[in-house]
From TrEMBL:
It is a multi-pass membrane protein. The chain crosses the membrane at residues 33-53, 65-85, 105-128, 149-168. This is Transmembrane protein 181-like. Residues 1-164 form the Wntless-like transmembrane domain. InterPro entries: TMEM181, WLS-like_TM. It is found in: Membrane. The gene is LOC103517063. Its main location: membrane. Keywords: Membrane, Transmembrane, Transmembrane helix. GO terms for cellular component: membrane. One of its GO terms (molecular function) is toxic substance binding.
Amino acid sequence: MSILLPMLLFYNNPTFPLIFLWNSWVPGMLDALFQITFISTLLLFWLCMYHGLRQNERRLMTFYIPKVVIVVGPLWFMAMLLASWQHWTQVEDPTFSYKSDTEDYHILTVTFSMFLGVYIISLVYLIVRAYSDLRSMPFFDARLKFLTLLMSIVLGLTSSLFVFNYGLSVLSFF
């Protein structure tokens, strides 16, 4: 949580004035880096919270490293690759649309979707395990319900913003 709160400041695009002062791709890329890093940190937070409710001993190698490999490795890297590719091509060619270079865009989105699917499967597994193990404990049950409600609200808002910005056609891969 102590990492998430400062990351929230960077998510709000602190480099926005640089867009007007510096005619380059750097401010847009910094904005993409900050947003993707915040969202990846939030995904890592959810994995750690649902697993941490059941496990008291949290060693670096056995608890945090597998989650970092799931989130930061493929998800953060693919999201940065996708955002940097799209931003770079839009700066180089202002008339560029991801719909015109469909083959490369679809390869990246399908790969990103596969990694996102692995994340979702691992998160659902941790949620089911947490609910099955902690359902009878009154204090942990309240924490579990609050965490699930918070995650549902954030996922609902994020997915509605995604659909609002990119449309439903982005979700059709074939």
